Each structure stands twice: as C-alpha cells, then as structure tokens.
Amino acid sequence: MNDLEAAQFREYVTARQSALFRSALLLTGHRQDAEDLLQAALTKLAQRWSTVRQSDAPDAYVRTTMYHQWISWWRRRRHGREYALAAAVEGPTPGDLGTDGALRVALAKVLSQLTPKQRAVIVLRYYEDLPESEVARILGCGVGTVRSQAHRTLARLRELCPDLAPEKEFDTA
Amino acid sequence: MTTQERIKRALDDLATAPEPVDLADRALRAAGRRRATNIGGGVVAAGLVLALAAVGVTHLTGHGAARTGGGGSSGGPCVQYTSGSNGQPDVPRDEWPDFVSKTVAALPARSDYSMQSGYGWCGLNPGMTRSPNDGLYIAYAVVNLGINREAGELTINVAIDEPSPPRVCSAATAAEHEQLSVLFCVEATSTTPVTYALGGPDGYARATAVYGDGTLVYLEYYGNAITPQQLAAAAADPGLYAIIPSDVPPVTN
User: Fold this and answer.
1) What's the mean per-residue pLDDT of chain A?
2) Are strands B136-145 and B113-120 parallel, antiparallel or unpaired?
C-alpha cells in the first residue's frame, strides 16, 4: 500500500469506525470482543484495500468479514460472554421502566440468548436496515432462514415486551 | 414511531460505548506484519516436523503434572480483566491471572507481552445453557505482543469437562476444519496430553493440548514471533495444567 492509499484507508476508518464499532458491539455484546472483531476486519480490509476501494464497497466488505469472523470465533470459543449488554438486564425489570427502557432491557436479554447467526440477523435487519435478501447474502443462507430467525426472535421479544405491535407492521423487503 | 423504529432505537441505545482509538494505524501495522509473515511461511513449514522432534517431544515427555487446581478443586471467583482501567493501556502485569502468567512464562521470553483483556475462572453466565457436545470454557485472554500488536496477538483459551476428549492424534485432528492445515501432532502419554498445531492464512497458528480428563488448552497466534512448536509447548505446559481447576461454579450476578 502506498502513502496515498494509506491516507485513504485512514480517512475511511475515521469516517466509519463509530458505526462499525457499534455494529460489532451489538454483534458480540462485549466491548473487548467488539474491538478485537473490528480490528481483525479492518486488518483484512487493509490487506485488500487497493482492490476493495476500487469496488466502492468497503462497508460491505468489513460487514461481511465481521459477521463471518464472529461466527467462526464463537464456534471455537463457545463461551458466551455477554457482560456488557447483559449488565443492562441486571437492573430494573422491563415492567419497572418506561416503554422504551423496557424494550431496551428486553432486547438485551433476548440478544444474550441468541446464537451468533440469529443475533447477526437481528443486527443486520433491524439495526443496519438491510433488506432480507442482503442479510441472506451476507450470512450465506436463504431468505427463508432470515425471515424465520427474525420471526422467532421478535416473538420472544413480544413475550418480554407485550406492548410491541404485531408483526404486520414490519416491512419484509 | 413504528415497532421497527423502536427496535432500531433500542439497539442504538445498547450500542453505546467508548470507541477504540487508533484503529486505522493498528490495522495498517498488523496488515504489514502479516504480509511479512506470509512471505516467510514456506520456509517455516518445511522445518516443522524435524523441529517437533527437537522441541515438542522433548518438552512433553516426562513432565507429568499433578493437578492442584486454581485455589482448590473448584475454581473461582470469576474475574474479568480489561484494559483502560486506571488509565492503563493494558492490564498491569502484576494483576495478570495465573493462567496468563504461566502461559507467557512458557513462551519465548520477551518484554512486550501486554494483556489486553480476559476472564477466568468463570462458569456459565446466568441464563445460559451449555451444549452437551462441548466443554465448559472457563478462561480466556487476549495478549498482545507489543502494545499495538507490533509482534502479533495471542489468545489463550481454557476449557474443562470436554465430553469426549480425543486420546489419539487421528481423532484430535479429524475434528478440525475451517481452512486450517494440521502442522503436527504429538500423541499422548500417561502423563501428557495429545498436542497438535494447525496453521492457516495470514500467519495464523493454533496449538491445542487435550488431556484425558477433559481439560483442553488452546492458544491462537497471529504473527511471526512465536513458532507453532513453541505455541504447542506452551499449550501443553505442565505448570499451566497444574493450576486449572477441575470444576468452576456458575457465574452469579
């Protein structure tokens, strides 16, 4: 990588690291894991920067790398560490909070119980607002799998947070 | 606000945490290091089998270790270690858990080992259930070589109670996959574990030691400062095995 490409890489990371870190944090539920995951994905991006930059899709590359890497790590480590997000569950119960607070607590609890792939579906679909077809492409599964995983997770969410509206409100793009 | 918007907002709230710094430069340095590692990879691979005989077997044979356990047969309490506390860029060396100190002591001597984060000895988290096919992972640590991983990054993983620990190399290595190749394997003796190393792209190596009682230690390393043989010797270190508890209670809030 020459100096110009390195400068472009730094510029890209500076502009996007906040959003990417937030996605990594939601995916892992653990700050240190999120940092490690994003660092690994950015290192791979740096190695392929010349090619990926020309495709004009570095976000897609980092996102795909992060999700695959996390699922791979999780399979090897097999020990769910949910301290960062689960900490929110240790406080008030959903019923003690306002509706948004209750939803946040319920979400943290539900996320901590998901497999990494299920969790990835929720983050990609509802946090990054990607259509089901794109989520399926990133995760290497069928649209039907994405839909069923999302459906099950939302059903669990409604058990914990009954005021959520019925699923018909959701787009299924 | 629609339900979808409410969920997105709740997710956004959950994703609030201080951002890491210097990500771009760290990635650039690591990418440069891995390129250098790949160039030298072929030469290293050619000498692995002979080096195993010289280093791995010598180290493993005759080093039976009594299991004393981390504070007795039951480990605990569960402790988390994070960098950044007290303004420190890493976990101070005098606060490292024993399993990190033992592992690092069994690796090549360097002054730049830097513990980034980890936990030990921790049982299942509240609300979690354990797969009947897996061991219980009770300790984990990320150790950088250089504060910015200038010489690589190491992870330490310790599990107990593996349901069906493999007792021979053919069984141990058959379960591995993920585009990794088996570099070497040393059969177990009455006092030593099955020990093997795998190699992957980008200077990645993983060494695993599996004991007959279901204890498993595996070390992962990216970089070119530690050889797979050295990694395997550390994974099978009798001093490390001796402090691993045989039981760890669940984490309580």
Assistant:
1) 76
2) antiparallel
What is the pLDDT, as a whole number, of residue B131? 63
**What phi and psi, each to the nearest 5 degrees, are found at residue B31?**
-65, -40
A chain contacts of residue B131, beta-carbon cutoff 8 Å: 78
Q: Cβ B202–A47 below 8 Å, yes or no?
A: yes
Q: What residues of chain A lie within 8 A of the CB of B7, using their CB?
A: 103, 107, 126, 157
Q: Do A22 and B80 touch (CB under 8 A)?
A: no
CB contact B7 to A (< 8 Å): yes
Within the 116-155 window of chain B, which residues sit less than 8 Å (CB to CB) from chain A?
116-117, 119, 122, 125-128, 131, 134-138, 140, 142
Nearest CA in chain B to A171: B4
- Residue B133 has, within 13 A of its CA and on its CB side, a CA count of 4
**pLDDT tens, A18-44?**
889 999 989 888 777 788 889 889 988
Instruction: For B222, name the nearest residue in chain A, comparing CA atoms only.
Output: A40
**What does the domain layout of chain B look like in residue ranges?**
25-243
* Partners of B216 in beta bridges: B159, B210
CB A119 within 8 A of CB A82: no
Query: Is B1 near chain A, with CB under 8 Å?
Result: no
- A1-81 maps to which CATH number? 1.10.1740
Backbone phi, then psi, for B209, in 5-degree steps? -120, 125
What's the gap in Å between the CA of A139 and the closest CA on chain B? Answer: 16
Give the torsion sign (CA, A169, A171, B2, B7): positive
User: Which residue in this structure is represented by tokens 């960098």?
Assistant: B83
Fold of A82-173: Arc Repressor Mutant, subunit A (1.10.10)
Residue A158 has pLDDT above 70, yes or no: yes
> Which pLDDT score is estimated for B29?
80
Q: Mean pLDDT throughout B95-113?
A: 95
pLDDT at B141: 86
All structural domains of chain A with their residue ranges: 1-81, 82-173
Domains A1-81 and A82-173 share a fold: no
**Chain B CB contacts of A31 below 8 Å:** 17-18, 82
- Model confidence pLDDT, tens digit, residues B216-234: 998 988 888 999 999 999 9
State if pTM tops 0.90. no
